[in-house]
Amino acid sequence: MTLGFPGLRCLLGSMGDAGPSTSPAQTLGSGQQRQVCFGLYGAPGAILAPMAGRLSDRVGSSKFNLVSLAASGIALALAGWLGGGSLLILVVAVNLLDFGLQSGQIANQTRILGLGDDIRARLNTLYMAATFGGGAAGSFAGTLAWSFGGWTSACGLSLALIAAAASTLVLNWKNEYRSSHMKGE
Hints:
- It is globular, with a radius of gyration of 17 Å.
- It has helices at 4-17, 32-41, 43-47, 49-59, 61-82, 87-113, 117-182.
- The chain is mainly α.
């Protein structure tokens, strides 16, 4: 559930304005018009989602979560520090972020659906509640970060949340590895 929090926060935060106010994204118009353009530019990320599901099945959801977090982190770094000067960089960042978020969602759902039938529905409910609740809290925190430091600060907060999620994933991975070797598997 920790992995869903930063992802949706990034999505909700980026949908708020779809680019810094001093960026080339301003040439696309304002508000809704700019968001529609970025939505269209982000279509390749959505097209890759079915491939992400097959890859998650092949390599495992934990490894694929790491890929999704890395893609989201790279996207936010690009957007935060280089996106203010180039529309092309913002478009690449939007696609990477879209791919990262969708891939993370797919990997998390794969993990949940792989559990027993008796617990799957309850865990999915908890996962979605945590994801959307985390998204709301993250959007609030992103607004505060924006008010203190603008676009770079908001992207920095998202990067920090992604780093926290990646740390949680790696620590959980180590614990799973340790416990499986202690059992003699």
